[in-house]
Design a protein that fits this description.
By secondary structure, the chain is an alpha/beta fold. The protein folds into 2 domains: 149 residues, Rossmann fold; 104 residues, Up-down Bundle (Dehydroquinate synthase-like, alpha domain). Helix content is 50%, strand content 13%. The chain contains 15 helices and 8 strands. Helix 3 crosses helix 4. It is globular and about 60 Å long.
């Protein structure tokens, strides 16, 4: 097997980065599909249209609402095809970016992602998630390549509520430990290759940055005023976390996101908060002796991340619910990236310890 590392073509971050959108878009053509969260369209739509228009790029707006289903994607793809687009510009949270990836894949064109929240590391990755009409995960699909441009305006992201930022912390904090398990146990990354050392080092840096600056960054989330700590943590949550998981691989913490939504009260829990609890379960199963579980639990309390299923929203999960969650988790590809094979009882017992 070959080592494979993947990444976006270019990553641009900073307050006011959105102002560069038109110039970058003009590199790829004159007609763009603007796949945009409907709420964000009302806030940033006119500004984006003006920025692109100043560089001769016309936009066809494709607003996104609700879950990304096969039906909604088919409709967006049809509208984009009718517009004869040269590129896709995806703006918003994870769902809008996922929709943009699905449209860009079908159109075989360049993709520019513009996240407006830092709730996950979707902006840099080639992955996108499809759901059914009942919010059940159907599939994780992949573009052939990562986004061409990732444009992260920290002044925009700093206006988003702190709850989104906290979810981003939860999603990112796991990557060092998941990449570690994947590499140690012969797992494959998102490119179906051997994780390179580079990915692990990036994931290690992500962890160090979050532990050092996460609380200070969270303190200014929602203020609209990014600080140096905020800039560092946004880079960790979007770029380092994205590269760390895609090229480094995943393990139990993310596999649990397949099972946890089946527990009453957790179906609508944000992905990042599910991952945060999943990481504590993973570290419990690792039986680490380095004090990291205690360190992370203290940091979780500092930044307001849940440490139990109850804090995540599950009042009193039944044995049947936990068994079903464990079954779905162990069926996920990433669950095999672990020091030893796990069975349902072992995982249920670990979940109980974090109930």
């Amino acid at each position: 097997m070959l080592k494979i590392f993947g990444a976006p073509g270019r990553y641009i971050q900073g307050a006011g980065a959105l102002d560069a959108l038109g110039g970058y878009a003009a590199l790829f053509g004159r007609r763009a599909a603007l796949v945009i969260d409907r709420y964000v369209q009302g806030v940033l739509g006119p500004r984006i249209e003006a920025l692109c228009g100043a560089h001769g790029v016309a936009l066809t707006a494709l607003p996104v609402e609700g879950d990304i289903t096969p039906e909604s994607i088919a409709a967006l793809r049809a509208q984009a095809a009718a517009a004869g687009i040269d590129m896709v510009i995806a703006v918003g949270g994870g769902k809008a970016l996922d929709a943009g990836k699905a449209v860009a894949k079908a159109a075989h064109c360049h993709l520019v992602t513009v996240p407006t929240v830092a709730s996950n590391d979707a902006p840099t990755s080639k992955n996108y998630v499809l759901y059914d009409a009942h919010h059940n995960l159907l599939a994780v699909e992949h573009m052939l390549f990562n986004p061409t441009i990732v444009l992260v305006d920290t002044a925009v992201i700093a206006t988003a509520p702190a709850a989104f930022f906290r979810a981003g912390l939860g999603d990112a904090i796991s990557k060092k430990f998941e990449a570690e398990q994947c590499a140690r146990n012969g797992g494959r990354n998102m490119y179906d290759g051997v994780p390179p050392l580079t990915a692990q080092l990036i994931a290690d840096g992500c962890l160090r940055t979050l532990l050092a600056d996460g609380a200070d960054a969270l303190a200014v989330a929602g203020s609209g005023q990014p600080t140096p700590a905020f800039e560092r943590v946004v880079e960790a949550m979007i770029l380092m976390s994205g590269l760390g998981f895609e090229s480094g691989g995943l393990s139990i913490a993310h596999a649990l996101t397949r099972g946890l939504p089946k527990i009453a009260g957790l179906a609508s829990a944000p992905h990042g908060l599910q991952v945060a609890v999943g990481l504590l379960v993973q570290l419990d199963l690792e039986a680490r002796q380095d004090g990291m579980l205690a360190t992370l639990t203290q940091w979780y309390e500092q930044v307001g991340l849940p440490t139990t299923l109850a804090a995540l929203g599950a009042a009193a999960p039944s044995d049947a619910e936990l068994a079903r969650a464990a079954e779905l988790t162990l069926a996920a590809r990433h669950a095999a990236n672990f020091d030893r094979p796990l069975d349902i009882k072992t995982l249920v017992d670990a979940l109980r310890r974090h109930a």
